[in-house]
Amino acid sequence: MRRILRGVFLAVPCPALAGAQNNAALDRAFEVFWNAGSSKAAEKAAAGILATGAPFAEVHERLAAGRRYTAGAALMGLIGGLLPALRAARMPITRALRDA
After folding, report:
1. Rounded CA gap, 49 and 27, in Å?
2. What spatial distance separates the first Cα and last Cα of the chain, rounded to whole Å?
3. Which of 34, 73, 88, 90 has the fewest Cβ atoms surrounding its Cβ within 10 A?
4. What is the pLDDT of residue 77?
């Protein structure tokens, strides 16, 4: 009886493992999409996203959420934008508009 149950367990694909593999493939496809350097490359990457067979709702959710940034990238953007913002805050508005 145990052999039969073990055989059935091994023969039936595990949905949790299949979902994990599908999510990994979808993660890779989205990474290629977000890193695309041109619209043609993004179009090819979008075809890769469709090829994963992910449900529309999941793809839509990921596109609506946008690209994920690491904490280091967010910190660098904050520091990189802070100095110009401080300079602009001290500048008279007429000069700022003229320089823009």
Report:
1. 9
2. 80
3. 90
4. 84
